[in-house]
């Protein structure tokens, strides 16, 4: 006897199927009555538990907004990056190939335009087939599938992805709810609207939601240009995105596509010739995997990261950071930014030249950032590390910005801070040509600094005095500068002792206020620089960001008008709703004659001072900065139209790039114009000069306004003539050329 079930077993199996059939039939009766029988007739029916359950099901489908990618655009409209959790590009039905509609209805719901949301005839046929042991058939109409997708989308937005109901895992209750909601949808929308909405929401692939994204992903074409065989493949895919995935299951995908074509032929939607040609065609995939996030930005990934953080830090985009992130990933935002691709590409080339990301085992950082004076617009932001990429130096820290914007703790600014002392000097009525005594090198703990805001709990801190333990006298980078000189010369030659001679005659609290007026603050905490720490006069106390310094120097360029840096010009969502974005809030914060006096001195830096090799052929002003052992080096400079900060240093701690044996493979000495010694003028200055020579002519390169004579005229400053001459070194004060 052949192996198989016994007669008794077959009888039991047949009986079980019959009982199941009866149960399903009863369910279909309930469903049919609930959907088709008028209310009066229903009220006459016996009040079964099934009917009670059905009556209590919701009748309204809450159709929330589709999850749509957000786009970040440069100032010229070019796309920098996209953000999404579902790659989707909604399009109208008339923007889809007619084959898309025909093939989908043929295989999924041929009676779509005839039923009222639930195809009872098709449902009964599928149930009978399934009970009888035939191949499993689906019973959901397009409208029911749309309802299921809307419910899943709502769960996904709520972070409940694990609870999404899949076609093969839905119970009777899920099916009933879906059916009743489908009827409600049919009453609210036209058939074409339902079909359009379905084709825009349906899942095809983890890389493609909706038909437009699917067409772009699989073949790099628009949905309106899909041919017959491509449309048929997509129509077959919705029933089993994993089972019929053409990338991983090409054989099954081809068979499913051809089945769709067979059905279309049987339904006379296509001719025999069309069918035969399409069946013979290969899948011919041309995959275009979408890229999202700043790591995949077409350019300026760190600027992109800065913009992303601007969204996350702004309550205009949601009550919580999670809300703002959800809006960015799902809200279809168009974020227009200030980035000028011309400047960005030039800046990127320079930082990569200074320290290539693939040939930098010692991890020397190089960055450039530019703002536009008078507007605060961030036009370029580059650094030599990368957010991703095999073989690159991967670093998530944005060297150019504050910690809250994706940066680190900032970098000590060295002598780029000296213009703040100069501005305070001029603000209090002193002059650029006043004579100061740069021979003075000792400032003991009881030195009579002026500090109107000092208290018993917060007084002046610090000393330069080699008669004290753990202290030493103030030092310049080079001998020969311990003498009398003008205040201007002390700044443009970057003489530490001259800077302290100036600071000793001004109110340190006013110096702190001038720094705040220029927007200078601690990159880690956002707090003002503590001007009562005397090492701050030459940049030796707290970390600041290059963006902060570029914005501060831009204030000098505009004769004292400070503009907060901004990276975003507008944000709108898919419904053209405008969101409030950070503003530059440009305002006069220092006296115009003070700014003009600073300009006149800092122009001399590029003519005869610490950056005399770094002129750019148009009117420009700048200041070099170098901390002890060249751990952090700077060149911050500007024209009338651009203010740029160039920084080179070690983001991971104190190391000297001059120690060649400690920096194997370091490659940033190759411009042929400098010695191997690294300071603000050599490496950072070289990058600044090469960049600004190309970038500056694209913006205003006019002359700076000359300062009035009341700012220039010189005298010898009384009480500024005592001298003391120890020469012990001090961290963060060695900038001099």
UniProtKB/TrEMBL annotation:
Against Gene3D superfamilies, the record matches this protein to: Biosynthetic peptidoglycan transglycosylase-like (1.10.3810.10), DD-peptidase/beta-lactamase superfamily (3.40.710.10)
Catalysed reactions listed for this entry: Preferential cleavage: (Ac)2-L-Lys-D-Ala-|-D-Ala. Also transpeptidation of peptidyl-alanyl moieties that are N-acyl substituents of D-alanine; [GlcNAc-(1->4)-Mur2Ac(oyl-L-Ala-gamma-D-Glu-L-Lys-D-Ala-D-Ala)](n)-di-trans,octa-cis-undecaprenyl diphosphate + beta-D-GlcNAc-(1->4)-Mur2Ac(oyl-L-Ala-gamma-D-Glu-L-Lys-D-Ala-D-Ala)-di-trans,octa-cis-undecaprenyl diphosphate = [GlcNAc-(1->4)-Mur2Ac(oyl-L-Ala-gamma-D-Glu-L-Lys-D-Ala-D-Ala)](n+1)-di-trans,octa-cis-undecaprenyl diphosphate + di-trans,octa-cis-undecaprenyl diphosphate + H(+)
Q: Which domain of life is it from?
A: Bacteria
Q: Which SUPFAM superfamilies match?
A: beta-lactamase/transpeptidase-like, Lysozyme-like
Query: GO terms for molecular function, please?
Result: carboxypeptidase activity
**One Pfam match, by short name?**
Transgly
Domain Glycosyl transferase family positions: 78-264
* All copies of domain Penicillin-binding protein transpeptidase, residue ranges: 368-640
Protein name, UniProt field? Carboxypeptidase
Name the species this protein comes from.
Tersicoccus solisilvae
